[in-house]
Design brief:
This protein is an alpha/beta fold and 268 residues long. The protein has one domain: P-loop containing nucleotide triphosphate hydrolases (Rossmann fold). Strands 3-4-2-5-1-6-7-8 form an eight-stranded mixed β-sheet, sandwiched between helices. Helix 1 crosses helix 11. The radius of gyration is 17 Å and the shape is globular.
Length: 268
């Protein structure tokens, strides 16, 4: 089981869109995926139409009052599971900060899942900040996947998050974490700026940037309001094709062959 933190301290760059749709595309390939929603706003949770669920976030597990396994819920999609988020997570920031193991609290909470090898990948959808929840995600992750919007300040934000990764590694909280990939999002083929930003990131990080570029599309923005991934909402559209291509490239990078698994009954 590998744990991937999907993070960028800047909001609106496609973190949740990437966590949800990459996760669903990997599940289509036969892998068992857990999406842990670490953002108190709960956007990943509402992307599955599960925003009405309360009291099932990681809050109790993080503060030691519950096991993480008790907070994992099935979605209606085969092989996709979620730990939902709610506003209680905002309070967890304060409580975790008081703990002696405040940097490794999430890693310790997730350890039973690693021991059981319950999932192929755990995707941590991080809040848009450099606070306790995001640093905990980096301390728990094998690697960081960073979505970058195709805009002028993209590289500036990337430099900041690379610095945080180095701080987590240097602190000893997680010496294995690394920046494992950069996904360019909201690419607008009608503008020169998008192409220029992609070229600039590719020039600085040629080994890290994914070949797959996620386009700017209204369908990707609409899908969460219907509680659906783009693979359900517009399965043949450019957004769905991009995330399926990203999933295939992700598996190649991780040298994972998509398993053949019998479909499980859908949750209705």
């Amino acid at each position: 089981m590998k744990t991937i933190a999907i993070a960028n301290q800047k909001g609106g760059v496609g973190k949740t869109t990437t966590a949800v749709n990459l996760g669903c595309a990997l599940a289509e390939r036969g892998l068992r995926i857990l999406i842990a929603d670490l953002d108190p706003q709960g956007n990943a949770t509402s992307s599955f139409g599960m925003q009405e669920i309360e009291g099932e976030s990681l809050y109790d597990a993080l503060v030691g009052n519950a096991a993480v396994a008790d907070k994992i819920l099935p979605t209606r999609l085969d092989r996709v599971f979620i730990v939902p988020a709610d506003l209680d997570l905002a309070g967890a920031e304060v409580e975790i900060a008081r703990m002696e193991n405040h940097l490794t609290r999430l890693a310790e909470t997730l350890r039973p899942l690693h021991d059981d090898n319950a999932f192929d990948f755990v995707l941590l959808d991080c809040p848009p900040s450099l606070g306790i929840l995001m640093t905990n995600a980096l301390a728990a992750a094998d690697e960081l996947l960073t979505p970058l919007q195709c805009e002028y300040f993209a590289l500036e934000g990337l430099v900041k998050i690379v610095h945080v990764v180095e701080q987590v590694r240097d602190s000893g909280a997680n010496t294995r974490v690394r920046l494992g990939g950069i996904v360019m999002t909201m690419f607008d083929s009608r503008t020169k700026l998008s192409a220029q930003v992609v070229d600039e990131v590719r020039r600085h990080f040629p080994e890290l940037i994914y070949d797959t570029v996620v386009p700017r599309t209204v369908r990707l923005s609409e899908a969460p309001s219907f509680g659906k991934s783009i693979l359900e909402y517009d399965s043949a559209g450019v957004g769905a094709r991009a995330y399926r291509a990203l999933a295939d490239e992700f598996l190649r990078r991780h040298a994972v062959a998509a398993p053949v698994r019998q479909a499980t009954p859908r949750i209705t």
